UniProtKB/TrEMBL annotation:
Superkingdom of origin organism: Bacteria
Lineage: Bacteria, Pseudomonadati, Pseudomonadota, Gammaproteobacteria, Vibrionales
Annotated protein name in UniProt: Uncharacterized protein
Length: 192
């Protein structure tokens, strides 16, 4: 029995897929790294990776005469990905700016600006800071870390973000800056 011969287009797609193969979970690792670099959710980055591959495959299928050897390279694929992710990330604001604009944060600051006379008021302020962390820091960070090892290590409770725990997430400096800021506010609340 003879093996079927591939058409030039099929051969080009096979070459592309071989060039894009990232061993040892490399595809997942690449997504996590790009999510961190561009501060975008894992799923958004994953979608761009797939779309970039499909764009090259579409060119192979519909414009085969215009396909160059470079089009089939990992470098070209990564270039397409970076161009798309840069465009998506253009509107990203610094996390501290997002945090300070959030209603949860503003409510916490309002509570903290008042004289705190009893434990109930102190608890209200702590809860507001914890909710701010959960919505403005924890949730976006879990969207970036989706299924990575760090995803499972990230506490959903602000007050579990010890210095040692923060160290584990040093690759996410904006998020850890926000955590430290919220913890400082909470500490000030304890001494009023």
């Amino acid at each position: 029995m003879t093996e079927p011969t591939l058409t030039p287009q099929q051969q080009a797609i096979a070459t592309l897929k071989a060039n894009l193969h990232l061993p040892n979970g490399g595809f997942h690792t690449l997504i996590v790294e790009l999510a961190r670099k561009y501060l975008l959710p894992f799923q958004a980055v994953r979608k761009v990776l797939k779309q970039s591959q499909k764009a090259i495959e579409k060119k192979i299928k519909h414009q085969f005469d215009d396909v160059s050897n470079f089009d089939l390279t990992l470098e070209n694929w990564l270039n397409l990905i970076h161009i798309s992710l840069k465009e998506q990330a253009k509107g990203n604001l610094p996390l501290m700016e997002i945090l300070q604009q959030s209603q949860l944060y503003q409510d916490a600051i309002q509570t903290l600006s008042q004289p705190i006379n009893d434990q109930a008021q102190r608890e209200t302020a702590r809860e507001q800071l914890a909710m701010t962390y959960e919505i403005e820091v924890y949730k976006p960070l879990t969207e970036m870390l989706y299924t990575s090892i760090l995803y499972w290590k990230l506490p959903d409770d602000l007050y579990q973000m010890t210095p040692a725990k923060q160290q584990e997430f040093e690759g996410y400096p904006q998020h850890m800056e926000a955590v430290r800021h919220l913890l400082v506010l909470s500490e000030k609340n304890n001494f009023k």
